[in-house]
Amino acid sequence: MSVIIEGITLGPRSLGSEIELCALGPRAATTTPQLRSTVVERQSGDVIQHATNEPLPGPQPSVKTNAVRFSRLRSTLIVVTLAGLNSIHCIGSGILTVALPRIGRDIHLEESLLLWPALVYALAAGCLLLIFGAVADVFGAKLVWVTGSFLYVVFTLAVGLSQTGLQIIVFRTLLGVAVAMCLPTAVSLTTNTFPRGNWRNIAFASLGMGQPIGYSVGLILGGIFTDTIGWRWGFYASAIVNCFISFCALWALPSVHHPTVKPWTRQLKEDIDWVGALILSIALGILLYVLAMTTSSYRRFSDIQNIVLFTFSLLLLIAFPVYMNYQVRRSKPAIIPNKLWRNVPFAATCIAVFFCWAAFNGLQYFSTL
What we know:
Elements: E1 3-5, E2 8-10, E3 19-23, E4 37-41, E5 47-50, H1 72-106, H2 116-139, H3 141-161, H4 165-193, H5 198-227, H6 232-252, E6 255-257, H7 264-270, H8 274-293, H9 304-329, H10 344-366
């Protein structure tokens, strides 16, 4: 095994392995010791590792930029695999949108909970994206992505087999957890697999394009399945296709690791803001419950139970930025640091996306009821 830096070979050399130190970003040729580098190991396992910021001992020579090279077939399979799951989870949402009234009648879902199978999916996925992104830094993006993909197969089948309203709500929540494992790791795998250029552009375009295409296909399939062999077969078909994608990923996706001197147990304990994620998840979950209870009639908002829960959720939402500031002052990890909202372009983009998706999601579900 050898490390090649401007023609200088460091360490022993072993058969079948070649490690090249590749700099990321526009400062690839800089000689500063603070430069973040990427160690790429090209072996049968195609392991891509990212070194820490610790400088190499001795003088710091300029670092030569080298790209990871995969065959055209392998690169195509990586793109298809990552974009395919993006399409599959949107297909499921499209099927649910069209079939929701029939699903409600078949499993006797209460009117006040009719939108819950859709809402809990988005809530679980949104609250856990950052958490699983951090977990992927500990265990590797491929492992987390593949685990989430196979779990998505299992819970999609479970949704199709659901017999009660509680079952479909629980399984749709677990589907949101599974897809939260795949979305941030798909971005990590794309960034760390393809260097800047055509292949990376194609990969990111495919990830984005897969969502609207998948949702459109899901709307069509939802109508076809609902009016013919039943809405359950829409989820069975999605699970079958996703199963093939998951097995393909075992070979196609490269392994991406971020080595550190900390053991994984210590990383999970110290490098992830579990408390912040819990506060935000509980606050949004309770708020969602209260809004769902008042969907059928706004008069239910005056119930003592709903007033107490709504007040408690607001208190948690107020406590969240306070806790974020507390974490930052202690130099501890914060899931969403408050300083992000002082970035005007970032804050404006988040607000615009929030209202756009609120209007779009509200229209798409209510139009089918």
